[in-house]
Amino acid sequence: MSGACVGGLGYSASLGPISGLVLCPMAAASLVGLSSLSCGAGDRRFSSRRYCWNQKSCLKISASSSERLSQFAAEKFTPKVESLLDSVKWDSKGLAVAIAQNVDTGAILMQGFANREALALTIASQKATFYSRSRSSLWTKGETSMNFINVHDIFLDCDRDSIIYLGKPVGPTCHTGAETCYYSSVYDLLDEPESKQDQLASTTLYSLEATISQRKLEIDSLPNRKPSWTKKLFLDEQLLCSKVREEAGELVQTLLENEDKTRAASEMADLLYHAMVLLKLKDVKMEEVLEVLRKRFSQSGIEEKNSRKSPSK
Amino acid sequence: MSGACVGGLGYSASLGPISGLVLCPMAAASLVGLSSLSCGAGDRRFSSRRYCWNQKSCLKISASSSERLSQFAAEKFTPKVESLLDSVKWDSKGLAVAIAQNVDTGAILMQGFANREALALTIASQKATFYSRSRSSLWTKGETSMNFINVHDIFLDCDRDSIIYLGKPVGPTCHTGAETCYYSSVYDLLDEPESKQDQLASTTLYSLEATISQRKLEIDSLPNRKPSWTKKLFLDEQLLCSKVREEAGELVQTLLENEDKTRAASEMADLLYHAMVLLKLKDVKMEEVLEVLRKRFSQSGIEEKNSRKSPSK
């Protein structure tokens, strides 16, 4: 692969010693064109976390210029990255486990392996990049499908032999079209080996969201089934609205009346659940809500409020 | 290790062919004593997800009897598990990547490797168990520290060569005492290599929670710093309470007045943020709220409501 542009994204993989990092002009332009390297507010996370190494370099790299990107990689970025790459405990094959995780939902999207070059390229391009053991080559997730994972941060574990690419997926991550690659529950497989009903590995908030969605489907498909509180809320918007207001009031009461923290957690759970039923009626996913919150990170609440256009806010 | 009870938890690791699964009586009793194998409502997740293979087996295993556990493992469990283990694509060393994830927060706790025996034992014991490459032996996370990871579900990826242990950690997972093993941000390291300020890899909701906590700390430690909306809310409980009520009302309004879904996502973000500021004043973490929701999974909302003791609900 030395020196040639390879892969769907067409970057050079000849990063051997990282000082040799060369991004083909076409590839660099593609990367910048995909805005993976921009430093707009939307790409930052809460508080002081940075996605560029300093404001100057950040501005440089956000310009749509392959020349500038190469310059950035070669001059600004390389020495520190080399040192960091040296600190990773690569295994006997020069690899470390790399896990891609959705920055908003926490869903584990996929797991692959990274070598020095894959990690270096991910740091530089902010596209999750792996080393394919079967093809013995680098590959950027999405280079064929365009379903990139835009990396917002990268973490190393305590032993420095495991990596998290914390990012936002563009479309489904799995080659099967599933949102993530983890959709086979061992306990489901043991219970019903023939079952074709895939269920994504999901954490509490998203399991709840899936259950709420299921209840909505059942209203039409299984009208005679045992009624549930969720279905009742779906069928009576006035009840739902009054419950959301009521639960907010009860949460507030835990503060005003100095109720215990167990009560506060319980009231917040009530509020969250009822609000999520309402969101389902509006066809809004929790992931969209979290995306809104993430995009507000880079401003103070006061600045954010002042910047709103609506006079009612 | 053949046949002997090993490790802090003292189970036998002689699982060679899985039909040889033997749990030492002492170990089995310990496991049951730790209630990892109970099937109470609190251990289940939403909807139809199961933690036992069928209700009968589940009841069997929840009894505090090592004999029954061994019987369950040997008679009921083994043939299906063998077939499942055969379907995993173990690498040339007989290993697959195993990632432990917090079922409530989605945080990736740690990553290790599993062999057939480690996965079989995790399935049976519901304690995250790995194969240590350095020690060439099985180890259950927590067997020394007692910081077990109680596994609620296990997922395989599309290629069947990567595993998620979705579970609830008992205490910090990292041997350093950190909540997870991932606390070194590559971009932080590149920016300030000497920085000792560890920051956990956290997704949007928990980054927001950390920012809110930071603002609260700053009220005392940095009183002259630029005020933020969050700080203002902390200092004025009446304002905070009226904002929580107001945002709930605005979320409701998006449904009643048929506002667009972008508006609904934005109002939910507002509500969530203000409610989280209130939770901080009550010293309640979002993880505790999610735990409450998870523990309500196994009941319908109506049953759950009817089961409450408080007459006000």
UniProtKB/TrEMBL annotation, chains A, B:
Pathway: Amino-acid biosynthesis; L-histidine biosynthesis; L-histidine from 5-phospho-alpha-D-ribose 1-diphosphate: step 3/9; Amino-acid biosynthesis; L-histidine biosynthesis; L-histidine from 5-phospho-alpha-D-ribose 1-diphosphate: step 2/9. Keywords: Amino-acid biosynthesis, ATP-binding, Histidine biosynthesis, Hydrolase, Membrane, Multifunctional enzyme, Nucleotide-binding, Transmembrane, Transmembrane helix. One of its GO terms (molecular function) is ATP binding. The chain crosses the membrane at residues 18-41. GO terms for biological process: L-histidine biosynthetic process. The keyword Zinc-finger does not apply. InterPro entries: HisE, PRib-ATP_PPHydrolase-like, PRib_AMP_CycHydrolase_dom, PRib_AMP_CycHydrolase_sf. Residues 110-183 form the Phosphoribosyl-AMP cyclohydrolase domain. It catalyses: 1-(5-phospho-beta-D-ribosyl)-ATP + H2O = 1-(5-phospho-beta-D-ribosyl)-5'-AMP + diphosphate + H(+); 1-(5-phospho-beta-D-ribosyl)-5'-AMP + H2O = 1-(5-phospho-beta-D-ribosyl)-5-[(5-phospho-beta-D-ribosylamino)methylideneamino]imidazole-4-carboxamide. NCBIfam families: histidine_hisI, PRK02759.1. This is Histidine biosynthesis bifunctional protein hisIE. It comes from Musa troglodytarum (fe'i banana).
